[in-house]
DNA sequence: GGTTCAATAT
DNA sequence: AATATTGAAC
């Protein structure tokens, strides 16, 4: 089915370029690829927006701003801290320049004029970030079920330069090098909150499996979130499918996500924000409520899921206070 | 006997 | 409204 399209269609992309006319061009192209687009013509104004919308910006495309190198600023101030994939674009770039940006965490370096084909595929960097962090080397369940026909190009194999870049300290609690939550079990709440990021990981797992194979247990295995139970995944899957049924009554569409059918922004306005996009930090473990903490049951549960503690991050119980600002997930 | 799904409970 | 739990079906 079209779960994959559903996932990448609503991604929010922020474009920064001091050339306003080119900004419009980019916006137009991105909208045609059914992304949501926000534009800024300078970094000074864009930065606060980014910081205030860390959960909602999926990808940043910024001009290199040579020679001021504001592009590098974004990479260092935002991408390396918060893990938002950033693509740099420039009208020209020699190898050493490209290398420098990539080494500083750029997910890609595009030469202007950027073609729509490149943009239609740009979502892969969001996807990459999502599946790479939790897969250091051979941590992934070995062979996935043979990639379904539409499986994403190169999943999980190589880590991007971004991950190699030096992590900057973040004063936020329980955030690790890649800007992911690593431990939060002290936050008490009786129910799991499917944060945007947790949902993303869920979607990534579903996509990886393919709709037919996407059943709770397999999804759980791929998500590799400690303490997350199959039942919770099942529950969420149930809701997710319900949503799909509601928002996409027609199942057949042209496979091409680009060019032929320029989708307007309103196309996905009928869908919920939550299932379309939203993003936050990577989550890999989640804590059990109350009683399990002190008792030995916790370890038992970990083993149940057959996850080793390492390589897993922590996933938190929903809390009113999110590190990176409020969420909106109205269905 | 374990897993999934739909319904129902909180 | 969102998540958890239940119970029948597979």
Short description:
The protein has 331 residues and is an alpha/beta fold. 37% of the residues lie in helices and 7% in strands.
Secondary-structure map with pairings?
Layout: H1 3-9, E1 12-16, H2 20-32, E2 36-40, H3 43-52, E3 59-63, H4 70-82, E4 86-90, H5 95-103, E5 108-111, H6 116-120, H7 124-131, H8 161-164, H9 196-209, H10 216-223, H11 230-247, H12 273-276, H13 297-305
Parallel strand pairs: 1-2, 1-3, 3-4, 4-5
Helix pairs in contact: 3-4, 9-10, 10-11
This protein binds a DNA duplex (10 and 10 nucleotides) through residues 191-194, 215-217, 230-232, 234-239, 241, 318, 329-331.
CATH architecture of one domain: 3-Layer(aba) Sandwich
Tell me the strand order in the biggest sheet.
Answer: 2-1-3-4-5
Radius of gyration, taken over Cα atoms and rounded to an integer in Å? 19 Å
Beta-sheet strand percentage?
Answer: 5-15%
Low-pLDDT residue spans: 134-188, 250-271, 277-281, 288-331
Q: Cα distance, first to last residue?
A: 22 Å
CATH fold description of one domain = Rossmann fold
Overall morphology: elongated
Q: What is the element string, with H for helices and E for strands?
A: HEHEHEHEHEHHHHHHHH
Category by helix and strand content: alpha/beta
* CATH H-level superfamily of one domain: Response regulator
Largest beta-sheet characterization:
5 strands, parallel
CATH class annotation of one domain: Alpha Beta
Overall number of strands: 5
| Estimated helix fraction | 25-40%
How many individual helices?
A: 13
Overall mean confidence score, pLDDT: 65
